[in-house]
Design goal:
heterodimer, A: alpha/beta, 14 helices, B: 305 residues, alpha/beta, Rossmann fold, globular
């Protein structure tokens, strides 16, 4: 049985009690509030400071007191991180926490828990809730709730709807939403189809320097589609989602951006070689374009759909071997700034239906690090510092959040990774409320095993 | 020799030996169908349910006949008027059927992969009677049986499938089965109804009947559905008939007889002219007769496995 900090607004007294009791009550995995903590012999990788050394870090009251200095005689808590990595806290800028409205799939609490277990100290959550995050009250609710769950160790930043009700017709109250903490605008799940609305979204959001995040899909080309259109959809007799639907939308948006150059444009979950070519050439023009890829789009191809497993159904769909190769090249050459999971929980009953009726999406928070290590590090597409940039530095930069640095005087925001551990994905052990993953049973290398953020320490196992 | 799988979900991936086993077994059952008493006992005591979530007359009757002639107990079920129309999921329907101790399930469903799905949730043998645009393996087998009977072999015969390939499970099962048996397969239809990448399944693609007719022995003509016009795949049935309708005049350009097949039901004088459908080179009714024999063979081989 797991005994974890119950989070919520823990009083100082309760924190002290918890500190005293931590050894007994936090038996297996622990969320604790130590005043001083010493992380010994950690391999520190911090792209922001260029650090790549084995050293010790002392944290006092949630701040980094010293890096590499002689340790004090006694800390409340010591962790020997020999052979382990200590990196700036990871951030997943594309998750669906489902609350409010779809709490049977995921809640802010279970989503945050899955994030912490996956090694993330921050997530940005998409607005396709019910009600949608298109109003400051919902934006504030999501943030308030996140502070009350799992010790508030994971920061939750709302991405607000670009249009009211995500219906693509009228701009959301962007100024109010930014003031209420929104870090980006997106109708994710649906594209902003109307070119005029997209233009206005670019113009209006440019006043705040906040990105418009496009779910790039021309829905007139994808209606009814269930998987990538190509040889595999032909074999399976499945209605297809053509790659050109994604590319067409990115192409249009880049042209609009050229017309409204003050805006920031971020392409969510790119999945085709053609999309990356468009981003690459827009970058050459110095347009403000960034993009992300999901771990499944660099790990799996549409051949995985052959058994009609609905956990291979997501939007954008799994693409071809050539596209997967392009994703890896795009990560390597820097065209892809960010790795984000598009964590999209659905219940077993929702997914255990005929393929064309199943909802799109898979969970991703708890497999992301393992897939990155296995597919990108082991295959030498990325080095550790490059990976950490895409999982920590760049998402924060794109969303205008302060950089996380492992340096004296900085707020401690850290992820612990075991780079060598080999493990098998067991969906039944996920901390997310949902189990919808195509990676069940897969052997992966590398796993996060703890985080430190907001003065809280969480270590699994 | 046995079939590798407990289920018949599709012809893709089946070996030449397995296909031959089914076709050879069907020869014996066709002979049974010629007898005055057409019933044999191999599936006595077995219960088979026919789950038809999509309307079908000929396939359902063909399966029912095959099942009864093998002495199985048969329950048939059509989607309308059942609990499916009350919103019960396929999984629950399947579980309920399972609870009734059914031995074999024949399923027809509009969703590709429905038979695969069912084979994962029930213990019974599952036979795919058509799943969306994916496969219709017994139709593929009966087409192969009919051609083998007509030509004495399948190796080297040249078959062109004409029409709406994109939405056709018959086309896919025919392509996989015939290619495995060594036949040459091509497809012909409007560019909007030819699915992407189909040439990588080993078939040639044509958009003009006159280009392909001189080079083939068989035309397998698919039914064209009016709703495809409504969703913009082609402008009108009139234009479709004019450019892709199989007519006596077109077929005569071959200079040699061309065998005419159709999985039914025919839109007479739309995709196929009435004189060809009823003509001397048509094997359309033999396909129907052979359907029962082939389905008996499949049921027998799976049921006694």
């Amino acid at each position: 049985m797991r005994k974890e900090g119950k989070g919520s607004c823990v009083s100082l007294a309760a924190q002290r009690v918890s500190r005293v009791l931590r050894i007994t009550i936090h038996h297996y995995s622990a969320l604790t509030w130590p005043m001083t903590i010493l992380l010994k012999n950690a391999h520190i990788i911090d792209p922001a400071t260029g650090r790549d050394v084995t050293s010790s870090v002392l944290i006092i009251d949630g701040r980094i007191e010293s890096v590499g200095k002689t340790a004090p005689a006694k800390a409340d808590r010591e962790l020997d991180l020999t052979g382990k990595l200590l990196v700036p806290g990871l951030m997943d800028m594309h998750v669906h926490l489902r609350e409010p409205g779809f709490e049977h799939k995921e809640t802010i609490e279970t989503g945050v828990r899955a994030a912490a277990y996956g090694g993330f100290t921050a997530v940005a959550c998409m607005p396709n809730t019910n009600p949608a995050i298109d109003d400051e009250s919902v934006a504030r609710y999501v943030q308030e709730k996140s502070k009350q769950v799992f010790g508030g160790i994971v920061d939750v930043f709302p991405i607000a709807a670009a249009t009211k009700g995500r219906n693509g017709a009228e701009l959301s109250p962007m100024a109010e939403l930014v003031e209420a903490g929104a870090v980006g605008f997106s109708d994710d799940g649906s594209p902003i189809m109307n070119a005029n609305i997209m233009r206005r979204a670019f113009e209006y959001s440019s006043m705040f320097g906040v990105p418009v995040i496009q779910h790039a899909e021309d829905s007139t080309l994808t209606r009814g589609g269930s998987m990538n259109e190509g040889l595999q959809s032909t074999r399976l007799g499945m209605p297809g989602i053509p790659p050109v639907a994604e590319e067409l939308m990115i192409g249009r948006d880049v042209m609009l951006l050229r017309y409204v150059p003050g805006a920031k444009y971020h392409v969510a979950h790119v999945s085709t070689r053609g999309s990356l070519d468009l981003v690459r050439s827009a970058r050459k023009e110095k347009l403000n374009v960034t993009c992300e890829v999901t771990p499944h789009h660099f790990s799996l191809t549409d051949e995985a759909v052959a058994g009609f497993d609905t956990n291979t159904k997501m939007n954008p769909p799994l693409r071809t071997v050539d596209d997967v190769q392009a994703m890896k090249e795009g990560l390597k050459d820097g065209t892809i700034d960010v790795i984000a999971t598009d964590h999209a929980p659905h219940t077993v009953d929702e997914k255990e239906v005929e393929f064309i009726r199943a909802p799109f999406g898979i969970v991703g928070l708890e497999t992301a690090v393992g897939l990155c290590v296995t597919e990108l590090l082991e295959q030498e597409f990325l080095s550790w510092p490059e990976l950490i940039e895409k999982l920590s530095t760049n998402p924060r930069r794109i969303l205008n959040l302060p950089a996380v640095r492992i340096a004296e005087g900085e707020k401690a925001n850290l992820t612990f990774i075991d780079p060598d551990i080999e493990w098998i994905v067991r969906p039944e052990q996920f901390h997310s409320k949902s189990r919808n993953t195509p990676f069940g049973g897969r052997r992966l290398k590398g796993k996060a095993f703890g985080v430190f953020n907001n003065g809280k320490l969480f270590v699994s196992e | 020799m046995k079939l590798q799988s407990r289920h018949l979900l599709g012809l893709e991936g089946m070996s030449r030996e397995e296909l031959t086993l089914i076709l050879d077994t069907a020869v014996s059952f066709k002979e049974v169908l010629e007898r005055p008493i057409k019933k044999v006992p191999p599936l006595q005591g077995k219960t088979i349910v026919n789950l038809f979530f999509e309307s079908s007359t000929r396939t359902r009757i063909s399966f029912e006949l095959a099942e009864r002639r093998l002495s199985a107990d048969v329950v048939s079920f059509a989607a309308t008027g059942s609990s499916v129309s009350k919103g019960e999921t396929l999984k629950d329907t399947a579980r309920n059927i399972e609870a009734m101790k059914i031995d074999m399930v024949v399923i027809r469903h509009a969703s590709p992969g429905a038979a695969h799905f069912l084979s994962r949730v029930v213990k019974a043998n599952v036979i795919n009677a058509g799943d969306g645009a994916h496969e219709h393996p017994t139709q593929g087998l009966l087409d192969m049986f009919t051609l083998r009977e007509k030509f004495g072999r399948l190796e080297g015969i040249r078959v062109c499938i004409v029409g709406d390939i994109l939405h056709s499970r018959v086309a896919r099962s025919n392509i996989h089965g015939l290619r495995t048996m060594g036949a040459e397969v091509s497809v012909c239809g409007p560019a909007t109804l030819i699915p992407r990448g189909i040439e990588r399944l080993g078939v040639k693609v044509y958009h003009h009947l006159e280009d392909v007719i001189p080079h083939i022995d068989v035309l397998n003509v698919l039914r064209i559905q009016l709703e495809r016009q409504e969703s913009g795949f082609f402008p009108s049935l009139r234009e479709y008939h004019r450019y892709f309708g199989v007519t006596k005049e077109r077929v005569s350009q071959a200079g040699h007889p061309i065998t005419i097949m159709h999985p039914g039901p025919i839109n007479r004088d739309v995709e196929l002219s009435a004189d060809l459908a009823d003509g001397e080179h048509s094997v359309i009714l033999e396909q129907v007769t052979n359907g029962v024999a082939v389905r008996m063979a499949v049921l027998y081989l799976l049921g006694s496995n």
